[in-house]
Amino acid sequence: MKKKRILILGGGYSKERVISLKSSKAVIKAIKKVHKVKFCDPCYNFIKTIKNFNPDVIFNALHGRFGEDGYIQSILETLGIKYTHSGVISSMSAMDKEISKKIFLKNKILTPSYLKIKNGTKKINFAKIKNYLGYPVVIKPINEGSSLDVFICNNKLSLSANLKKMRNYNEFLIEKFISGREIQVAIMGNQKLGAIELRPKRKFYDYKAKYQTNAKTKHIIPVDLSKRNFKKVNEIALKAHKLLGCKGITRSDFKFYKNKFYLLELNTQPGMTNLSLVPEIAAHKGINFKSLINWMIKDASTKR
To answer: Virtual CA dihedral for 67, 150, 268, 142, nearest 10 degrees?
Structure first.
């Protein structure tokens, strides 16, 4: 690959800042001997940094709000600089769990039933929640990643207590809890990279299970699925990727229950840390980390 000027965007304003910095560090280590690399945190006058460095490509290693919800993408497109991952509309649609769910359901992709709650609602209709969703339920923000502020509630008392923890969000979802196996699928462009199964020691694959080395989450690859089901979950992930208009790398999170795959969400900017799943899936496919990152750089464009 021809040597390029690569600006790595990392850190940022979201609750996933620490993970973004880890992803950035891993990306820099992988390409610094091949390309001219500079790190930039958008919290600190990043427009000036972009103009001064004049990069050929911006590698977007941001996670969470501002980084993968269409905002930073709209700025980069205005500047006319090539960048990695998905574009404005696809990033926004994937980050907004209600929008993505509506797209999935419209296109006959199974996803857990849900209710949207607006903060400030004077009275929560617990009877409606019980009748429509049943217990247990999952509370989750509409636009956060890394399973931040996600709570499983087994009854009304637990739900009522955890609702108080959602006061910082304007809107959030209450979703039917789907038990079963946790299957993650990676897409690279229009290529089905494969899948990995996670068996966390915790209640589910939450923030700690994802990023703490002592969480003891078991990673199983190759996944123990029939050929038919393996093909099916990969095809659903690719279908969702295309429906949302995604580019580059995405990772879709599924629950496999009673021989059915439920798509929980699609991530347009999966982590690139030493514990991240997409690099692990790619490695199993025969694509090492350096090759994966260089593919993403080559795939970058001004209009995503």
So the answer is: -70
Domain boundaries, position 72: 5-84
The CA distance from 75 to 85, in Å, is 14
Here the tokens at position 158 are: 């637990």
Rg (CA), the chain: 19
Output the CA–CA distances (angstroms, integers) from residue 241 to 24, 35, 209, in the order listed.
24, 29, 25
Say how many C-beta atoms besides its own lie within 10 A of residue 131's C-beta.
Answer: 9
CATH code, domain carrying 78: 3.40.50.20
CATH code for the domain of 157 = 3.30.1490.20
The predicted model scores a pTM of 0.90
- DSSP designation for 179: -
In a domain, 304, yes or no: no
Per-residue tokens: 144: 């956060």
State whether residue 143 is helix, strand or coil. Answer: coil
Beta strand 5-9 pairing with 57-60: parallel
pLDDT (tens digit per residue) in 130-181: 999 999 999 998 887 556 788 999 999 999 999 888 888 888 999 999 999 9
Residues with a catalytic annotation lie at 16, 146, 211, 251, 253, 265, 267, 271
